[in-house]
Specification:
Number of strands: 10
Distance between the termini: 19 Å
CATH architecture: 3-Layer(aba) Sandwich
CATH topology: Rossmann fold
CATH class: Alpha Beta
Largest sheet: 6 strands, mixed
CATH superfamily: P-loop containing nucleotide triphosphate hydrolases
Number of domains: 1
Bound molecules: adenosine-5'-triphosphate, magnesium ion
Radius of gyration: 17 Å
Length: 221
């Protein structure tokens, strides 16, 4: 069974007379140990797709399933419980609670999943090279540091599926390699990842790449 299934997703945005077709029939199945890259020009629907996959946004048509659990069209309380338990998410911005320290952000993610693990917390902070920043508030971090912490938060509870929106958008080349290694390690140990990226280096690490254009998948590999 795929860890994550998206079936024929549609998402429309209305503003006055204008209608944007952000997603037009996107389907996707991601297996354990698989890393799928999503590429496409700005405005092609990548972030909309990720928000639907995470159950943060409701598609207008189609459905999303995590393992055997349907995520679409159920109350937000149930969706957020499934998210906390199974899904690690890193969006383009605003991933951290500003009033919580770095460490507290990771712990919160673990607590919500019922998986508090101090050794894992230390390991993740060490891996991204930010152990010494654990007591810091997010507002005191650089953009690249914040991105790395956001990835650690997404991985904190060892989720079944990891959804990442441009995880290396803010970082230098060396940090990008570090982040890529962390995602690869997660997939090798049984995780399933979908990552939106403009980076060819990152996409090359993936098992396959889905290309979006105007809300549709344009390739079939
Ligand atoms: N809340 C919204 N209201 C109206 N239109 C929206 C909304 N969110 C996204 N859109 C529109 O939907 C389309 C897809 O947007 P989306 O954010 O998914 O693009 P993207 O591929 O992630 O782009 P980028 O690479 O710039 O992040 C765009 O035309 C965008 O303007
Ligand atoms: Mg986007």
């Amino acid at each position: 069974m795929p860890v994550l299934t998206a079936n024929d997703l549609y998402r429309f945005y209305h503003a006055g007379e204008d209608e944007t077709l952000a997603l037009r029939g996107v389907s996707l199945a991601v297996q354990a140990k698989e890393m799928v890259a999503v590429m496409g020009p700005s405005g092609s629907g990548k972030s909309t797709l990720l928000a639907c996959l995470a159950g943060l946004d409701e598609p207008d048509g189609g459905y999303v399933q995590v393992l055997e659990h349907r995520l679409t069209r159920r109350p937000e309380t149930e969706r957020s419980a499934l998210r906390a338990r199974y899904i690690g998410i890193m969006l383009q911005t605003d991933n951290l609670f500003e009033t919580l320290t770095v460490e507290e952000n990771l712990l919160l993610s673990m607590r919500l999943a019922g998986k508090v693990d101090r050794r894992r917390l230390d390991y993740l902070l060490g891996f991204i090279g930010l152990s010494d920043r654990r007591k810091e508030l997010p507002s005191h971090l650089s953009g690249g540091e914040e991105a790395r912490i956001a990835l650690a938060v997404a991985l904190a509870a060892d989720p079944a599926v990891l959804l990442l929106d441009e995880p290396t958008g803010e970082v230098d080349g060396e940090t990008e390699l570090r982040i890529m290694e962390l995602i690869s390690q997660y997939c090798r140990s049984g995780g399933a990842a979908v990552l939106v990226t403009h980076s060819d280096a990152l996409a090359r690490q993936a098992n396959r790449t889905i290309r979006l254009l105007d809300g549709q998948v344009t390739n079939n590999d």
